[in-house]
TrEMBL record:
Keywords: Hydrolase, Membrane, Metal-binding, Metalloprotease, Protease, Transmembrane, Transmembrane helix, Zinc. Pfam families: Prok-JAB. InterPro entries: JAB_dom_prok, VirAsm_ModProt. GO terms for biological process: proteolysis. The chain crosses the membrane at residues 164-185. This is Mov34/MPN/PAD-1 family protein. It comes from the Bacteria. Residues 26-125 form the JAB domain. One of its GO terms (molecular function) is metalloexopeptidase activity.
């Protein structure tokens, strides 16, 4: 067994390439949960290891292939890495990236010392969340991507129309602030009055 942390990391550092790789994995298994392990050092993920989902109901559950799981754990050990997290996806429309009741029971029981990343792909956005499932509570753990604090939604590049809209909105809001500032100014002194 690879090193197990007594306490899971308080955050998880992923790279943009790993997030894109996970997006491709999801695209290759439409409608099914994909799963695997995240290995690394400290809080930084070195690699994602895909493991086939052997669940009889892969649309709503995952069960990692036992042989592949064993191989993955051995390779993490051989590389002197730490098992940081499990990952899986929730493919159903309107899914949430929080653990299901089944996740809380099985992940909390089988993997108490790792984090659990849950990904939901909605249209063109990948929602990623990491969780620590403790015996009495489920705690959200922040994910950073490429050393920038990741938003809960990782958006694809904006289209040029969206960029123009954002620039226009910024200009308009600046103009509005200037107008408000001018209207709030006190009236100018009446310089026509004779000075005493
Ligand atoms: Zn789940």
């Amino acid at each position: 067994m690879p090193d197990l942390l007594s306490v899971p990391p308080t955050h998880l550092q992923l790279s943009r390439e790993q997030v894109l790789w996970l997006t491709e994995q999801i695209a290759q298994h439409p409608g099914e949960e994909v799963c695997g392990l995240i290995a690394g050092r400290g809080a930084t993920a070195a690699r994602f290891i895909a493991i086939p989902n052997r669940s009889q109901t892969p649309q709503t559950h995952f069960q990692m292939d036992e042989n592949k799981l064993f191989q993955a754990l051995k390779s993490i050990d051989d590389a002197q890495e730490t098992l940081l997290a499990t990952y899986h996806t929730h493919p159903k429309p309107h899914s949430a990236s929080r653990p299901s009741q089944a996740d809380i029971v099985t992940l909390g029981r089988d993997w108490p010392h790792t984090l659990h990343v849950i990904a939901v792909h909605k249209q063109r956005d990948l929602h990623l969340k990491a969780w620590h499932i403790a015996p009495d509570e489920v705690i959200s753990v922040p994910i950073t991507v490429d050393s920038a604090l990741s938003p809960p939604v990782i958006q694809e590049r904006l289209s040029s129309a969206q960029q123009v809209a954002i620039i226009l909105a910024t200009i308009l809001s600046v103009a509005l602030v200037v107008i408000i500032a001018i209207t709030l100014l006190p009236p100018p002194p009446d310089l026509t009055l004779p000075l005493r």
